[in-house]
From TrEMBL:
The lineage of its organism: Bacteria, Pseudomonadati, Pseudomonadota, Alphaproteobacteria, Rhodobacterales. It comes from Nereida ignava. Residues 8-323 form the D-isomer specific 2-hydroxyacid dehydrogenase catalytic domain. Transmembrane segments: none annotated. This is Glycerate dehydrogenase. One of its GO terms (cellular component) is cytosol. One of its GO terms (molecular function) is glyoxylate reductase (NADPH) activity.
């Protein structure tokens, strides 16, 4: 006997290949617009469907889950991070949450290296000169940057992405240091050529470039505050492709303007889609629009993981990427 086709609502437009495959497997509703759903639209959708597929733009808090319909049993998040979802509240209302862990790790690691190179080699400044037609030809002293080979790289958060960055950094001849909640196994450290620091503060004082790959938790909020930023070398560069609020953005902006930190490459911001406006005017900062994981291959793989979680749930089993509530 064939299983029931679940009713699924997707809150944002997904790659066409993902939407088409979803339509083959489920009774799926996709928005005509790519704008995020309003809170009222989210609640209305959750009252009528079996599965909701949200993205990072959708804030699913306890009040929203309390208004969900009895049919809703799975929130299959399109993305790895779930800090926009109150997983405990979902569980309390009999709703499972799944995500897509690890899918964008390699893509994000690529972009992390791209940001390092962009800041240290002043690539956006060179691009601007060419696009405005202001280039007067080669000069021995024009747009001098710094190489990353031989520099010390500090990795804050040594999960899938951090380890992928470490492998790439070794290929560039960098010295890899890391701070993590838990130390890696000795054989993993040896494979990555990475030195562990139990003290984040001590590591910060030693590295030339810091890249951040820790999740959003109460303990990581402003983990890079003004005091810790001041521990870094004035010649240091900071890169963030994780979550915006792990850095005190106002403090970072002040120190970049005053020369206490040499540069920054940012793909995420404390204000979500609104970075500190003073950052836009700084030549030693590279700003990207949250695109570190934005590859066709990665987005389609993410969709495949979402569909696997939904299909497994439809077969009566726990989704393979089920997020365990912190209350358990």
């Amino acid at each position: 006997m064939s299983r029931k086709r679940l009713s699924v609502v997707v809150t944002r437009r997904l790659p066409a290949a993902v939407e088409h495959r979803m339509a083959e497997l489920f009774d799926v509703t996709v928005r005509d617009s790519d704008a995020p759903m309003s809170r009222d639209e989210l609640i209305a959708a959750m009252q009528e469907v079996d599965v909701l597929v949200p993205t990072v733009n959708d804030r699913l808090d306890a009040a929203v889950f309390e208004q969900a319909g009895e049919r809703l049993k799975l929130v299959a998040n399109y993305g790895a991070g779930t800090d926009h979802i109150d997983v405990n509240a979902a569980h309390a209302n009999g709703i499972m949450v799944s995500n897509t862990p690890g899918v964008g790790a390699e893509d994000t690691a690529d972009m992390t290296l791209a940001l390092m190179l962009s800041v240290t080699r002043r690539i956006p400044e060179g691009l601007s000169v060419m696009q405005t037609g202001d280039w007067d030809g080669w000069s021995p002293t024009a747009l001098l940057g710094g190489k990353i080979g031989g520099r010390s790289l500090g990795i804050l958060g040594m999960g899938r992405i951090g380890q992928a960055v470490a492998r790439r950094a070794r290929a560039f001849g960098m010295q890899v240091h890391y701070h993590n909640r838990n130390r890696l196994r000795p054989e993993t450290e040896a494979d990555l050529g990475a030195k562990y620091w139990s003290s984040l503060n001590q590591m910060l004082a030693q590295v030339d470039i810091l890249t951040i790959h820790c999740p959003h938790t109460p303990s990581t909020y402003h983990i890079m505050n003004a005091r810790r930023l001041a521990l870094m070398k004035p010649s240091a560069v900071i890169v963030n492709t994780s979550r915006g609020d792990v850095i005190d953005e106002n403090a970072l902006t002040r120190m970049l303007r005053s020369g206490e930190i040499a540069g920054a490459g940012l793909d995420v911001y404390e204000g979500g889609a609104e970075p500190n406006p003073r950052l836009r005017a700084l030549k030693n900062v590279v700003l990207l629009p949250h695109m570190a994981s934005a590859t066709v291959e990665g987005r389609e793989e993410m969709g495949a993981r979402v569909m696997l979680n939904i299909s497994t749930h439809a077969d009566g089993f726990r989704p393979p990427d089920m997020v365990i509530p912190s209350s358990l």
